[in-house]
Amino acid sequence: MKTKAHTILLALSVTVFAFSLIFYPQQSLEASIRGLNMWWEVVFPSLLPFFIVSELLIGFGVVHLLGVLLEPLMRPLFNVPGVGGFVWAMGMASGYPSGAKLTARLYQEKQISMIEAERLSSFTNSSNPLFIFGAVSVGFFHNPRLGMIFALSHYIGNVFVGLIMRFHRKAEEQRTQPTKQHSFSIRHAFHILHETRLKNKQPLGKLLGDAVRSSVQTLLMIGGFIILFSVINKLLYMIHMTEHIALLFQYMLHLFQLPKELSIPFISGVFEITLGSQMISQVEQANLLEKAIVTSFILSFGGFSVQAQVASILAEANIRFQPFFVARMIHGCVSALFTYILWEPLYVRFYSIHETKGAIPVFLTEHAPLWLFQYWKFLTQYGPLITLLSLCMYALLLFLTLNKKAD
């Protein structure tokens, strides 16, 4: 009976979505273009280098070397192997959903167990600094100084989640898997690096081609989810579903003494963080602290768009999605709490700014870190060109591969 109800619900949801597309074609097109622009200009060109480099590092055995060196840090703190340190660093630098992709790859390479993969994916997926400082702080709030609050609360929250998830299925792991003792040895680390390189006898060109194909395929999937959830978010607003859902969340916001006007932007952010962050920044009935708290939550929660991307990646490796979702709820709450805690010492006192209800301080973008502003400007100007050239290279590699198989 439960399975039938689930089937009916899914069928009904897809039917409503299809009819909504028919009734609101113009709004759907605009939402699709908006999602495409975000992927085309920023997401693809910013994530592609990280994905390719990560694939090459795994192929050359550098990740094995880092795993031995980082074992004394990652095992006591997060109860994951040392290679988790590489995934954690790359996940923070490149953003969603890099941590999930690398976790799945390491699990498929049998470098981590299923339980370790669930732990690792729960705290290695985060928003990247470019999005936090460039898009949210400068682009939406016009206040680059907010970036430090968002970043600290976000990454401290991530560490907190990792410390909690170290106990995930620990008793089961102790029963089924023997405890391995790893000693720190630079000589052993380089020995592992050399052995891994000898086992992988593929030439450099083949490794590079595989890295490009795998990275572009993942980014195409990510782009599809970004466009899809951008349209879903818009259609939910058009059929007034967002307003009805927001009524339920108004009570929750009231419990935390947050204005009800943030409910609709909050719902939008739960589905897609970019639109939600932008809508929150435009709410005049809330002060800056209230907006920062809600924004921190949705940045850490990730939105259903990001979670769908992660779920798709984890499903390919048969890794459970539930621990990741629970971790995102914890991360959102912890980040919002740290935003409130850090606000007084790091924003009000440090910058000597006193906010009043409805007032939003506006700073010139030149106050942002120069390299970050220049990088963001570079992506918005040349991102589409990088994306187009990369897609052409991917098409050429795919054509050559298919030709080779045909011969």
The total beta strand count reads: 0
Low-confidence stretches: 353-367
Average pLDDT, rounded to a whole number, is 83
The general outline is: globular
Instruction: Calculate Rg over CA atoms.
Output: 22 Å
Termini separation: 52 Å
Order of helices and strands: HHHHHHHHHHHHHHHHHH
What is the SS-derived class?
mainly alpha
Number of helices: 18
- What is the percentage of strand-forming residues? under 5%
Major sheet summary line: none
Percent of residues in helical segments?
over 70%
What is the total domain count? 1
InterPro entries: Gate_dom, Spore_IM_YlbJ
Protein name: Sporulation integral membrane protein YlbJ
Pfam families: Gate
Organism: Anoxybacteroides tepidamans
Your description of this structure?
Keywords: Membrane, Transmembrane, Transmembrane helix. This is Sporulation integral membrane protein YlbJ. It is a single chain. The N and C termini lie far apart (52 Å). Helix 3 (62-78) packs across helix 10 (186-199), helix 8 runs antiparallel to helix 17 (322-351) and helix 13 (263-271) runs antiparallel to helix 14. This protein has one domain (47-171, 182-353, 365-406). Helices cover 80% and strands 0% of the residues. It has 18 helices and no strands. It is globular, with a radius of gyration of 22 Å. The protein has helices at 2-23, 25-60, 62-78, 83-94, 98-108, 114-123, 129-140, 146-165, 170-176, 186-199, 204-238, 241-255, 263-271, 273-281, 288-301, 303-316, 322-351, 370-406. With 407 residues, the protein is mainly α.
